[in-house]
Amino acid sequence: MSILDSLYEAALADAAAREAVEPIGHVREQAEGQPPARDVLAALAPRDTVHVIAEVKRASPSRGALAEIPDPAALAAVYAEHGASVVSVLTERTRFHGSLDDLRAVRARVDIPVLRKDFIATEYQIVEARAAGADLVLLIVAGLDDDRLRTLRELAESLGMQALVETHTASEVERAVASGARIIGVNARDLTTFDEHPERFGELARAIPEGAVRVAESAVRAPGHVADYRRAGADAVLIGQALVTGDPAETLDAFLRAGTDAVVARCGRTPPRPPPPAPAGERRS
Ligand SMILES: O=P(O)(O)OC[C@@H](O)[C@@H](O)c1c[nH]c2ccccc12
C-alpha cells in the first residue's frame, strides 16, 4: 500500500467513527446553521503581490513532529495579522496531529478564509468541513477518480465553499482542469515518496488556464523560494513547516516581501505598465 493510500485509510476510518456517532443529517443541519462561507476566490484573486496560505501544521509523516502549537487559534491570528490571505488547518489526526477542533478554534478567531486540509474522499468529510466553519477543502487528484473529484468539488461549491484541487504531475493537472477546478495547486512534495520537486510548479503552471488560481504548495524554506514560485506564475503559495518552526510573524513578513518584489515573468502575466508620461506642458520639473 502506498503512503498516500495509508493516509486515506486512516482519515476515512476516523471519519467513519465520527459518522457512527453523528450521522450526516445532523452534520448537514450544523452546516446549514453556519454563517455563509467566505469568498475564497475574492481572497485569492490575482494581485500584484503573492498570496500566502499559511498552515497550522504540528507534524507530518515525512518530518515527524514539527511544533506543538498548543493554541492553533493564536497562531492563526498571527498569520492573519501579518498578511496571510487564507489559513490552512491540517485536520488529519494520525500523522499530522490535527483535528476538526483545531479548525473550529481557528474559525472562531480569524476573519480570513479557512482551508480544511485532510485526506477527503467522502461527502461526509465535505459536509463536516462546512459544519466546522471551513470555506475551502483540499481535494487531491492522485487519491480520487474523475467522478469523485467532480462530485466532491460540486458538493463543496453547493455549500458555498471552494476546493483547492491538488496535483503533482502533468496528467493530474489535465484532470484537475477537465474536472472544472477553479483553484489548482501543484504540490512540490510527491505524496507517494515524500520527495520534493520545487521545480515542478514552474513546469506545470503553464497548463493551468488563465482564470484559475495557481497555488504553489510545499518546500518553501526561505524567502527566495517564494520569489521563485512567484516568478514562475504563482498567485498563492502554501507554506507550513517554515512558519511553524521559525518565528511565524517575522517569517511571514519576509516571505510576503519576497513575493512582492519578485516580478512575474511567465505564464502570460506581465507586470503592470508604468503610467504614460504627462504631456510636455504639464511636466513639473
Ligand atoms: O510544510 P511545507 O513544506 O511548507 O508544506 C505545506 C503544505 O503544502 C503541505 O503540508 C501539504 C501539501 N499538500 C498536502 C496534502 C496533505 C497534507 C499536507 C499537504
Automatic annotation (TrEMBL):
Identify the CDD domains for this entry. Answer: IGPS
Gene3D superfamilies cross-referenced by the UniProt entry: Aldolase class I (3.20.20.70)
| Its EC number(s) | 4.1.1.48
Q: Which Pfam families match?
A: IGPS
Molecular-function GO terms, alphabetical: indole-3-glycerol-phosphate synthase activity; phosphoribosylanthranilate isomerase activity
Pathway assignment reads:
Amino-acid biosynthesis; L-tryptophan biosynthesis; L-tryptophan from chorismate: step 4/5
Annotated spans, Disordered: 266-285
Q: Which reaction does it catalyse?
A: 1-(2-carboxyphenylamino)-1-deoxy-D-ribulose 5-phosphate + H(+) = (1S,2R)-1-C-(indol-3-yl)glycerol 3-phosphate + CO2 + H2O
**Which parts of the sequence belong to the Indole-3-glycerol phosphate synthase domain?**
4-247
Q: GO terms for biological process?
A: L-tryptophan biosynthetic process
Keywords attached to this entry: Amino-acid biosynthesis, Aromatic amino acid biosynthesis, Decarboxylase, Lyase, Tryptophan biosynthesis
**UniProt cross-references to HAMAP family, sorted A to Z:** IGPS_B
Q: Which PANTHER family does the annotation name?
A: INDOLE-3-GLYCEROL-PHOSPHATE SYNTHASE, TRYPTOPHAN BIOSYNTHESIS PROTEIN
Q: Which family does it belong to?
A: Belongs to the TrpC family.
NCBIfam families in UniProt = PRK00278.1-1 (NF001369)
Q: What is this protein called?
A: Indole-3-glycerol phosphate synthase
